[in-house]
Amino acid sequence: TLFNILLASRWIIDGNLFFHTDIARDFLLMEDIADNKHLTLIGPRSGAIPGLFHGPLWLYLNLPAFLLGNGDPVYVGWFWVFLYISSLGITYYVGKKLFGEEEGLLSVLLLSSVTILQVRALFNPFGALILSPLFYYFFVKYLQTNKVKLLISSLFILGLIIQFQMAFGIPVLFLSFLYLIYNLIKKRNFSHLLSFFVLSVPLSSFLLFDLRNNFLQVKSVADYFWGSQMHGKLSLNFFQLVMMRIKESVMDGLGIITQGNNYLTIILLLFIIFALIISFKKKSKNLNVYFLFIYFYLGFWFFTIFFRGPVWNYYFLPFIPLLILFFVSLKTRVNK
């Protein structure tokens, strides 16, 4: 893992960041905040739906490093190394708490390997990648203990994730709500639904922006899904779209941790299926944890059916640590 951190830092050491369009956009927005003292309620424009914007949290997260380095990208790059290491620490913590010390260490090794190339060019979806294991951990622990403070923590973190990447956070929010409705009816803890009000804190910037701009984003989303806005939509019928999403959920979704190696992706899928069958037969103690991940993962891809545009890999980038944790935890079900 330490060697992987050194590899990930190599571009920063050489001052050789991958300064692509989205990175340049973020630096221009931070420059505007710094030079004009212009505190913004929105972040970069979303590429999925015209008129929709990400939250500003990624900009404010990077702004101190931008100011300390007087706009020098290399200073911000070193902050990206810190974020990379933070993602490893959080994944280790969650892996250790949910599955054990060995699983936590192995998860960190795999995550540090898979994300080496990303450190030279971080943008807003990486913020969601850092936090996704914490959201999942608090959600699992709430279901296990029924402690409302864990649900509040989980939903607050999910709100921060939405700030970083709506394409991931919004489907997960809907899926969380549906799952909690079922769970709360089953346990008759209806008062726990009030926990959703905590989302008003991390999502307040979206609300304030729309109130000041005649609900621009709400109207943009409505125009897109009700058909009056056709920009970026794929010319596929419903059946073709479903078939494409099924293929993407395997080859692209799992391929994000096999670096697009199709043969390795198929092997990974077969291993997961085999290990799950063994887990169900032996009634593994982690079955509920496995089921919840499968619910979120397949549920995410189900929601993409209603989105007519292409699903880029940075939409589901935050699944990387969760996929790795899921994969590593299954190793105890089969012969080592």
What layout of secondary structure does this protein have?
Layout: H1 2-13, H2 21-36, H3 57-68, H4 73-98, H5 101-114, H6 125-145, H7 148-164, H8 166-187, H9 204-212, H10 216-225, H11 238-251, H12 262-282, H13 287-303, H14 319-329
Helix pairs in contact: 1-4, 2-3, 3-4, 4-5, 4-6, 5-14, 6-7, 6-14, 7-8, 8-13
Structure commentary:
- The protein is mainly alpha-helical and 336 residues long.
- The protein is 66% helix and 0% strand.
- The protein has 14 helices and no strands.
- The protein starts with a helix and ends in a 7-residue tail after the last helix.
- The model has no long low-confidence stretch (mean pLDDT 91).
Mean pLDDT: 91
By DSSP, the count of extended strands is 0
SSE order, one letter for each helix or strand: HHHHHHHHHHHHHH
Largest sheet: none
**CA distance, first residue to last residue:** 21 Å
Sum up the overall morphology in one term.
Answer: globular
